[in-house]
Amino acid sequence: MEQQDRKFPYRLCVVKTSNNDLSKRWYVEFYVWDENKGKLVRKQDFSLNSYKTVADRLRRGQEIKREIDAALKAGKIIKKVDAAPAPAPVAVSPAPGAPEITVDSTLKEAISFAVKIKTGSLSDRSGSTYRSIKNILFSWIEEAALEDLRLGDVTPGIMSRFFDYLKLERKVDNITHNNYLLYSRAIFNLLVRREIIEKSPCSSIKNLPEQEKSHVPFLDEQRLQVKEYLELHDPQLLLFCTFMYYTFVRRSELRFLQVKNIQKKKIHIPGYIYVNGKKTRVSKNGKAETVVIPDGLENVINELNLRNYPADYFIFGQKGQPGPKHLGLSYFSNKHILCLRELGLNDGQTLYSWKHTGVVKLYMAIKDIRKIQQQCRHSSIAMTEKYLRGLGLFDNEEVQALFPAF
Fold this sequence. Notes:
Elements: E1 11-16, E2 27-34, E3 39-45, H1 54-73, H2 107-119, H3 124-143, H4 156-168, H5 174-193, H6 220-233, H7 235-247, H8 251-254, E4 266-269, E5 272-275, E6 278-281, E7 289-292, H9 295-303, H10 331-343, H11 353-366, H12 369-376, H13 381-390, H14 397-402
Antiparallel strand pairs: 1-2, 2-3, 4-7, 5-6
Helix pairs in contact: 2-3, 2-5, 6-7, 7-11, 12-13
Keywords: DNA recombination, DNA-binding
Family: Belongs to the 'phage' integrase family.
Protein name: Site-specific integrase
């Protein structure tokens, strides 16, 4: 055990190589003083397992050892949870009421600051995602004994260890990894824009390859089977599916749909609305948009007299009918799962399959990609083409039908 005239003891890193066996987990082990427990605690870093050769793992192990050993010798400990943070010497662009953040602030302080700023202007769901990312980052920071790491000392190598941790310890898939990377970049980019740091430590970290999402529409017989079941057992869920089928509107947007949004020939989707005095984002990009009301949906709207309810009522209110209070985000998804389970349908369909089914039906009827783009509210034709290919639609039918015989 080395102390070197320090108040707190520590043990330097040891790279555990499992006798250079690549089939086993390697790790870097060290001991750091924990003020909460009043003793040395063992910590392990498994990030070197992302490397596939003995030489690369040995090299990365020595890099991690140098970083952690230097931090231990500089006085790194795990501080008490209630310890007051050191005052920041210089404030840079603080938000009103926010803590002062500089390069000398800890990484945890900087993340908390950025997440607080980001969530102040986002929907409840997006804000919740940022808070989840923050909690996972904090868990990793504590496990890696980086509580005292200065924001100015955060490097791409250090952040790479976080993403190694996600893959190796939390076993996240590539899509989830890339989502974490997207939100982490947003956190550090905010600090860059406020001139607190010069460059994001996540900017050089690459996305992992993703398998393109599989969109599963309903077959005709399945569509009729679900429709008949819901007519008897859950008319409100049937109405929700009907709106999604005809309008391609997202479930998060549908739950905030109000009577006043149903216009003569179009449905208005607001960017934001106020719910219980709180500004709440409705559309994905926060911009007001419209979609066409097809005749089939118009007939349903008239049959149920939906335009006759008070203008500020939510179409999908409590007690199975329009009302002053909207339902929760997962309400219809959960009921839809139970419906499919009851019918024994397990071919991969979800609530969003009603949108996919509507797109398939409309494309087969009109073969006009521009009109599909408009109803889907895609920002580009390329986005629509990718979506249609995911549905197995965008085949070259002329080549198939008109190719001359051999």
